[in-house]
Amino acid sequence: MIISGFKNCSPSIHIELTLSTSRCRFLSEIAVIDSKSLLPRQDFKDIPDSIVIFIYSHDILKKNKAVYNITRKTDDNIPFNDGSRIIVLNGAYKGKHRLKDLIEDLKQKDADKLHYQDLSDVVRETKTATYKEDERMNIFEKVYEDATKNGIEQGVEKNKIEVAEKLIARGDSIEDVAEISGLTIDKVRELTESKAS
What we know:
Helix content: 40-55%
Order of helices and strands: EHHEEEHHHH
Number of helices: 6
Radius of gyration: 34 Å
Number of domains: 2
Structural class: alpha/beta
Oligomer: single chain
């Protein structure tokens, strides 16, 4: 959508609700983007233009514009023309602009009310993926919970058997072993018989 009109560039899009200009600088370090654009031993003149797009929930420059285009210039206001620029979208903009629908879409939570079909599809996919992820996490948590419960139960049962075996080895009666260990009389008899064999 936004980036379809840019030719020979490698756009980077960053969406954040609250962002300061210094954080904008940190996140837009063009050198990092450029380092991913060139192959080893490729000439620097082959670097595509770099456009970093920030979408703010508020008007960071407070000039009531929908879009701010930021380019590099010298102290004398001469364009540097290094092929890098930043585009800032003002999510709080309420006036008329060709990006008004996109700005409204960025605030919309209902995929059916979005103006852009591509964005609507992404929102639906994300919600479905999130739901499926939640469903997988619920299944994982259930399996983990069951495994933990079973592990604890097996540990308790093992402990009861160890206690019973010590009492049997000491010569205690089947009834006393069952009462002290918490095992059934049948289980204690089974353990006694297996010790005798």
